[in-house]
Amino acid sequence: MDAETAQAQYFCRRPRGSLKLDAGVLDVFKQFRQVDRYATEAGGVIIGRHIVGTDDVVADIATTPSASDRRTRTKFHRSQQAHQQILDAVWLRSAGTQVYLGEWHTHPEPFPSPSSVDMDDWRRRLERDAVEAPFVFFLIVGQLAIHVWEGSRTAYGVVRLVPQKFTCPDGGLDERARCDPDFSSDTR
What we know:
The protein is α+β, with helices and mostly antiparallel strands. It has a single domain (9-176), classed as 3-Layer(aba) Sandwich (Cytidine Deaminase, domain 2). Helix content is 20%, strand content 29%. The chain has three helices and ten strands; from the N terminus they run ββαββββαβαβββ. It has helices spanning 23-32, 80-93, 116-128, and strands at 9-12, 18-21, 43-50, 57-62, 70-71, 76-77, 99-106, 135-141, 146-152, 158-163. The strands form two sheets. An eight-stranded mixed barrel has the order 1-2-4-3-7-8-9-10. It has a two-stranded antiparallel ribbon with strand order 5-6. The longest helix has 14 residues, at 80-93.
């Protein structure tokens, strides 16, 4: 994860569409990566927008750990109240266009994978959390990479999203470069 020149990062959704992690979200992730041996796990919620008329989603904000979160080297427990207050304020300020998209946390490994605790938590969230969308994103920030999973609230399963190789220089979505199974970005 080269966040020195943080630009947006895209992940392909199935069967089509993309998840865009805005530069500000990547900056938060860079700040909390567990790159030294004593760094504790960090996390929060992802807030963003569903793009009308498409299957695209934009993550605009990643909340940062609060004083009431519980953090150790290998565990993170998010305090609901602190992060919910931020989510509520953003939702009001945006007239309801910026909403809860999911959860993020760090792992002290280069290329993160979910633990059994993560998987149990994700299943529980898919079954119990009150969310309008039929899906929730789960992000794990490793020392070198960000891995993203999309959870289905109807099937209660999770699927890992594939990073999109193409990013627009201006940070915008290029219609040609969407994660469309019928589009080939190979221009040879």
